[in-house]
């Protein structure tokens, strides 16, 4: 009886579980059915809504935007304190203690986080005046614009600069050219004939002083970019830009310089104090990377001419001879050959011969080794230095000196490396150049100062092939061509055309001092980058690097124009909206001018 009772209870329990299971499955199925109906209907409504809006706009005018322009609240940015007058956010001396001293890496870029960014307007120094116009600015600048007495006291005996009254004068002297920079460059041209006939067009000067070398080269048709780190006293880059000479903050330390491989025709170091033979020659390897095949590296100063100069270098002849031999061995191992030498100037040439690089690849014990294919030679935005030799590809070899056309023909010949840019072609470059010629012609109508001595230092904040710079080539300007580190890599094309530029990410501050550019130009920058970079911080950075009374040309979608105008007003800019050359409704031009104002806390 007990057994039968247990069996009956088990059957009832099983029946109850089966019923609950069937009920649960039915409930889930019904829920799924209802959810499917709801989701499909909602999806239909959304699609229908979008389609109706798009169709309506298209019928009205295919050129009009499909959304209303973005709006921002009115804002008035406060003044920064006077301690900000030379503020460089990503190379701020106040932050140096946070970073290591190994290979001076604290002098590299270390940008503040978003929550640390300043939201104020940087005042000019007390007594600031509009910069002296080019070409007089090459020889003199206002003392109050760059009020640094330290460099005047330390370098006046070497004729870097001299303070006379309310001006600094630049007599063209230097540590290694006591007879003047022109005489120094004359000697250099005797060693490198290509500097006279347009073969050499682009150069980089590491440890540039006050950029007298780069300033002299401009008259010889050579465009040199001066490079020096931020420092507390010398302000080398700020002096260079105040004079109207191309320059950028930077240091060869632990990261690559922000340039593509095989970019410059020539690199120069005049007693620049870079320890070339230390750390396995890794700094020389970076010079090798950025100099194009057939290009030159010039060194004047220790240990060149050591047998005559060693007494003045606080060292011994034996030490200097050892350093020179070590330098020569390193240069040979990375496919540089000794090209020429006279007195204090020595010149090496980067080989384009494939056999030299093949020997490195075959020798497993060679140092430095050849870089493998996994190391991208053009990757140069926060990219660590690599202890290996970047060997030129066949494409780069055809862009070497001797193969690439001479200047100025080079500007209008399609570089072979355009094939590495997605969608790049000869016809595309020709179309781009034609487009920018028309645009610049229109710009000069709405901004008459463009093309005159009122505007010298120009930046194209998001170039593709350097078309804006090419259209200004006959004007008394130089252009810093900026290619976004997030866009297609077209900077090699810019350099191959005989122009200069750099990689940059506009979510961060640019590597320059405040008040260093006369004109900033941007073409659809916010359309391309607003999903990453907050507009407010980009505009505040533009205000930082723009000179008082300087200009900005925004070429942008109508969607952003109202917001830009509102924020510009909060920065004390005066703006004027203009039509494009073809009066396209979806795109507008905004021309703004930064006003000259002084801090309310400064002495009168």
From TrEMBL:
UniProt key word Glycoprotein: yes
Q: Among its keywords, does the record have Transit peptide?
A: no
Matching entries from Gene3D superfamilies are given as: Vaccinia Virus protein VP39 (3.40.50.150)
Where does the source fall among the domains of life? Eukaryota
Q: Name one Pfam family in it.
A: Methyltransf_29
Q: What is its membrane topology?
A: Single-pass membrane protein; Single-pass type II membrane protein
Cell compartments where the protein resides:
Endomembrane system; Membrane
Residue ranges of the TM segments: 20-38
An example GO BP is: methylation
Q: Which UniProt keywords apply?
A: Glycoprotein, Membrane, Methyltransferase, Signal-anchor, Transferase, Transmembrane, Transmembrane helix
Q: Which GO terms describe its molecular function?
A: methyltransferase activity
The EC number on file is 2.1.1.-
Family according to the record: Belongs to the methyltransferase superfamily.
Name listed for the protein in its UniProt record = Methyltransferase
Organism per entry: Camelina sativa
> Source gene?
LOC104777215
């Amino acid at each position: 009886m007990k057994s039968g009772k247990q069996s009956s209870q088990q059957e009832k329990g099983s029946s109850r579980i089966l019923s609950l299971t069937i009920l649960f499955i039915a409930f889930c199925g019904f829920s799924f059915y209802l959810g499917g109906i709801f989701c499909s209907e909602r999806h239909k409504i959304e699609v229908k809504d979008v389609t109706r809006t798009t169709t309506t706009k298209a019928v009205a005018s295919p050129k009009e935007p499909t959304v209303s322009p973005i709006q921002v609240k009115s804002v008035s940015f406060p003044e920064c304190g006077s301690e900000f007058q030379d503020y460089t956010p990503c190379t701020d001396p106040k932050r140096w203690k946070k970073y290591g001293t190994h290979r001076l890496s604290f002098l590299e870029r270390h940008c503040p986080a978003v929550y640390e960014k300043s939201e104020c307007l940087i005042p000019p120094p007390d007594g600031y005046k509009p910069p002296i116009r080019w070409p007089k600015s090459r020889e003199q600048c206002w003392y109050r614009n760059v009020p640094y007495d330290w460099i005047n006291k330390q370098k006046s005996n070497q004729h870097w600069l001299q303070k006379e009254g309310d001006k600094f004068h630049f007599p063209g002297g230097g540590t290694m050219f006591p007879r003047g920079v022109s005489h120094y460059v004359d000697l250099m041209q005797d060693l490198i004939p290509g500097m006279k006939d347009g073969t050499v067009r682009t150069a980089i000067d590491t440890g540039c002083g006050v950029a007298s070398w780069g300033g002299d080269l401009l008259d010889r048709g050579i465009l040199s970019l001066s490079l020096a780190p931020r420092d507390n006293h010398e302000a080398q880059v700020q002096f260079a830009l105040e004079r109207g000479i191309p320059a950028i903050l930077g240091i060869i330390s632990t990261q690559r310089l922000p340039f593509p491989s095989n970019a410059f025709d020539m690199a120069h170091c005049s007693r620049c104090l870079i320890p070339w033979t230390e750390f396995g020659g890794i700094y020389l390897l970076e010079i090798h990377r950025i100099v194009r095949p057939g290009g030159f590296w010039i060194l004047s100063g220790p240990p060149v001419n050591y047998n005559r100069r060693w007494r003045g270098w606080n060292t011994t002849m034996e030490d200097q001879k050892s350093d020179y031999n070590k330098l020569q061995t390193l240069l040979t191992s990375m496919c540089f050959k000794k090209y020429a030498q006279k007195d204090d100037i020595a010149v090496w040439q980067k080989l384009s011969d494939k056999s030299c690089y093949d020997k490195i690849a075959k020798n497993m014990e060679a140092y430095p080794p050849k870089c493998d294919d996994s190391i991208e030679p053009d990757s140069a935005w926060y990219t660590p230095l690599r202890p290996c030799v970047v060997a030129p590809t066949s494409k780069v070899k055809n862009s070497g000196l001797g193969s690439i056309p001479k200047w100025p023909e080079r500007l209008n010949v399609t570089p072979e490396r355009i094939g590495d840019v997605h969608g790049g072609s000869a016809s595309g470059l020709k179309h781009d150049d034609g487009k920018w010629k028309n645009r610049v012609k229109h710009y000069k109508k709405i901004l008459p100062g463009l093309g005159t001595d009122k505007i010298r230092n120009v930046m194209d904040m998001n170039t593709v092939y350097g078309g804006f710079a090419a259209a200004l080539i006959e004007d008394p300007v130089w252009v810093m061509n900026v290619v976004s580190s997030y866009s297609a890599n077209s900077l090699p094309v810019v350099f191959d055309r005989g122009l200069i530029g750099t990689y940059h990410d506009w979510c961060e501050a640019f590597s320059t001092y405040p008040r260093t550019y006369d004109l900033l130009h941007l073409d659809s920058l916010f359309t391309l980058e607003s999903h990453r970079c907050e507009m407010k911080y980009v505009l505040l950075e533009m205000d930082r690097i723009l000179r008082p009374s300087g200009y900005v040309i925004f070429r942008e979608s109508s969607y952003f124009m109202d917001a830009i105008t509102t924020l510009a007003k909060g920065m004390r800019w005066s703006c004027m909206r203009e039509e494009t050359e073809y009066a396209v409704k979806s795109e507008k031009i905004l021309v703004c001018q930064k006003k000259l104002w002084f801090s309310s806390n400064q002495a009168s």
